[in-house]
Task: inverse folding
């Protein structure tokens, strides 16, 4: 009952490519296990081995190897549903998850591998006063309290990373690096990640992202004008922050609605086609002769025109001009800004030329014999790297109403709406694993209401305790998560009131909370084991049937927002997930009648507890019943 061990998977892949690099070593208990012979692997990968003290370009810091190990290490934790804090639990497809985001990301990797279209995070800026996550899980509670002095009711670990700390940048990198590595696995092949940051860690974040995602996948570093209050004591008044943008695979990224909202609506970029005469001359575009052959497309009836009125059928509806064909060969002597594309257009039989941005270019001859380009907008981006008029923290505070008083630096909804609209559409998943004030969830709901989309949000937040002297604590909010959830509830209600036409708008969310495994931590050596242990319950006594169901969904890779129905079959509670994809029964004294009725519905998976079966006869007939009614159903016992 733990997530995939990424190290084992990596060893397996390397072994498939380089079998000669596999070896055996003994673990700390003296048991043999498969390992990598790194000397042999270096030889396979290098013409000249780089090792030892030889100088090389690298980005490193203390404990970097441990940060990598932390990202790859499996977790035995689980997520427990909390219906009473959720909104529309049974129907919503949105998630709000409380807990250490590194462990949550590892669990989500089981269910959302390669499925998240967009990630936005606003991590701690490392200003010297903010909290960072303490990932030293070897400390016990007393040792942790001694070291940090910060923890919440669930024992989540937080430390204040001050500049006096000799590991100031190291601790921040050890916090962010493993989370970026796991987050990359969640992104779809055409997915992107936005990361807010300021001057304190922009350099380190840039290097870390380029190492995790690849420098070639960097799309932009936005400069966001925050329009906030200035530090009057500063020599230079800072009024901006940064938003890094990286892709999983830059070549696959598509920007369906990427137009800066500050561009006037009268701009030509809003036209379906953009026409330009290509007559630019210069050092890069010297004068030359280009043969325009007979039959070349033209949009006027003139001396070069064939009266047959031949059109390009694939563009007859989308380009509102009449295309004709030239009657004779023509030598055009001019400087062509797009000469290479023009020659490709001619040699390709006058088919549209597609550039590396996915933009289609067509060519036509004008009345004067000049050549015009017709560029179809298509997948053309009109995003400017400086983000103006998006609001700042003051606007964000207004967006949150009275809840805005409980956060120092929330992000404005207008900014998040713009970022979300760049890359997400339809049914995409948007993840924010430093959720904070939950602005991302607010923006997703608002955008869906405005454009009819069905985007889903997944918010992840550590339940950081609020200061007992703070207004938030006095108002009854004991941790950050309570404020975030209340913000989503209020925002969803307001958006529905403002958009009554959005009948099917999803403003609900399922609350899930990170916790230890549902299974008992029982370990026996052979001499300690006796037959009474066979009858011990392997499930923790405080866990519910729904807890077991969600751990099963994690183990089987089923989305945690999947439709869940609860039915009664032969007097027993049966859980039905995704219309029969998974059926589960955790009731006691389950008899053959219940098993038979479940098998007749032919689920893909069926899961039950070990102690559920009424007696030995039911246990003996269990496999036979499924083999008769649904032999392909995969059966699992907890």
Result:
């Amino acid at each position: 009952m733990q997530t995939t061990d990424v190290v084992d998977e990596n060893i397996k892949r390397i072994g498939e490519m380089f079998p000669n690099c596999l070896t055996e070593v003994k673990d700390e208990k003296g048991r043999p296990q498969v390992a990598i012979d790194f000397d042999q692997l270096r030889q396979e990968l290098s013409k000249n081995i780089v090792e030892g003290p030889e100088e090389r370009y690298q980005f490193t810091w203390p404990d970097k190897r441990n940060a990598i190990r932390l990202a790859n290490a499996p977790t035995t934790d689980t997520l427990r549903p909390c219906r009473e804090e959720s909104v529309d639990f049974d129907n919503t497809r949105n998630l709000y998850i409380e807990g250490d985001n590194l462990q949550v990301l590892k669990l989500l990797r089981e269910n959302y591998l390669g499925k998240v279209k967009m990630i936005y995070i606003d991590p701690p800026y490392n200003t010297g006063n903010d909290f960072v996550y303490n990932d030293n899980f070897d400390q016990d509670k007393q040792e942790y309290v001694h070291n940090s002095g910060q923890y919440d009711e669930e024992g989540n670990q937080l430390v204040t990373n001050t500049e006096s700390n000799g590991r100031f940048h190291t601790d921040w990198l050890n916090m962010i690096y493993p989370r970026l590595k796991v987050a990359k696995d969640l992104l779809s092949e055409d997915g992107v990640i936005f990361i807010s940051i300021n001057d304190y860690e922009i350099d380190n974040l840039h290097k870390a992202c380029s190492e995790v995602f690849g420098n070639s996948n960097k799309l932009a570093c936005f400069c966001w004008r925050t329009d906030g209050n200035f530090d009057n004591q500063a020599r230079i008044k800072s009024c901006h922050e940064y938003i890094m943008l990286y892709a999983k695979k830059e070549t696959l990224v598509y920007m369906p609605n990427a137009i800066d909202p500050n561009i006037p609506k009268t701009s030509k970029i809003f036209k379906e086609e953009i026409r330009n005469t290509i007559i630019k001359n210069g050092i890069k575009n010297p004068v030359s002769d280009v043969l325009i052959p007979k039959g070349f497309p033209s949009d006027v009836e003139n001396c070069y025109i064939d009266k047959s009125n031949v059109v390009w059928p694939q563009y007859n509806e989308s380009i509102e001009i009449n295309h004709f064909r030239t009657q004779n060969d023509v030598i055009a002597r001019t400087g062509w800004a797009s000469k290479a594309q023009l020659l490709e257009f001619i040699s390709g039989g006058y088919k549209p030329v597609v550039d590396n941005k996915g933009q289609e270019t067509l060519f036509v001859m004008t009345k004067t014999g000049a050549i015009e380009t017709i560029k179809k907008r298509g997948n053309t981006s009109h995003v400017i790297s400086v983000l103006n008029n998006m609001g700042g923290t003051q606007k964000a505070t207004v967006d949150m109403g009275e809840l805005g008083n409980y956060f120092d630096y929330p992000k404005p909804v207008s900014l998040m709406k713009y970022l979300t609209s760049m890359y997400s559409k339809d049914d995409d998943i948007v993840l924010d694993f430093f959720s904070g004030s939950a602005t991302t969830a607010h923006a997703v709901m608002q955008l869906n209401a405005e454009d009819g989309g069905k985007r889903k949000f997944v918010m992840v937040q550590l339940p950081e305790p609020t200061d007992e002297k703070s207004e938030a604590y006095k108002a009854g909010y004991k941790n950050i998560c309570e404020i975030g959830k209340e913000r989503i509830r209020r925002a969803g209600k307001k958006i529905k009131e403002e958009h009554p036409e959005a009948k099917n708008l999803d403003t609900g969310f399922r609350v899930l909370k990170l916790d230890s495994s549902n299974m008992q931590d029982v370990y026996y050596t052979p001499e300690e084991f006796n037959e009474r242990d066979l009858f011990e319950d392997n499930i923790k006594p405080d866990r519910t049937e729904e807890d077991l169901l969600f751990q099963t969904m994690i183990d089987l890779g089923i989305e945690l927002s999947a439709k869940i129905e609860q039915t009664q079959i032969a007097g027993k509670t049966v859980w039905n997930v995704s219309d029969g994809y998974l059926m589960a029964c955790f009731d006691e004294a389950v008899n053959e009648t219940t098993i038979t009725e479940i098998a007749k519905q032919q689920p893909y998976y069926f899961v039950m507890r070990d102690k559920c079966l009424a007696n030995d006869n039911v246990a003996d007939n269990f496999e036979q019943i499924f083999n008769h009614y649904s032999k392909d159903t995969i059966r699992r016992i907890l």
Q: What stands out?
A: Residues 261 and 418 are 8 Å apart (CA to CA). The chain has a mean pLDDT of 79. The longest helix spans residues 168-186.
